[in-house]
Amino acid sequence: MTARAVTEATFEQEVLNNDKAVLVDFWAEWCGPCRAVSPILDQIATEHSEKLDIVKLNVDENPGLAMKYQITAIPAFKVFEKGEVVKTVIGAKPKPALEADLAAYIS
């Protein structure tokens, strides 16, 4: 399983109305650190799919959501539960650090 793309059109259904916790990866094609962390997110998505959904939102293609969630630096990760942001992580990190940040949602 890999992180799937969401857009402004699918965000409410895929993220806000999801029964599971959802990590949203706010990213852009031109962002090197975003591309570097993408395979790590895919691994976490595969290993923890029963507890956490991981989706990607391109900030260049969906500027309204980037503005709404105050994305000023990418990559930025926000964990949503029941439609609310419950955790924010900024910046690319190695897998153990990301898993530590997400421990409450994947363990």
UniProtKB/TrEMBL annotation:
Q: Which PROSITE patterns match?
A: THIOREDOXIN_1, THIOREDOXIN_2
Matching entries from SUPFAM superfamilies are given as: Thioredoxin-like (SSF52833)
Xref: CDD domains: TRX_family
Which residue intervals define the domain Thioredoxin in the entry?
1-107
Entry annotated with the keyword Disulfide bond: yes
Query: What keywords would UniProt list here?
Result: Disulfide bond, Electron transport, Redox-active center, Transport
Q: Which InterPro entries does this entry report, sorted A to Z?
A: Thioredoxin, Thioredoxin-like_sf, Thioredoxin_CS, Thioredoxin_domain
The family line of this record is: Belongs to the thioredoxin family.
- Protein's UniProt name: Thioredoxin
Species of provenance: Agromyces humatus
Gene name tied to this protein:
trxA_2
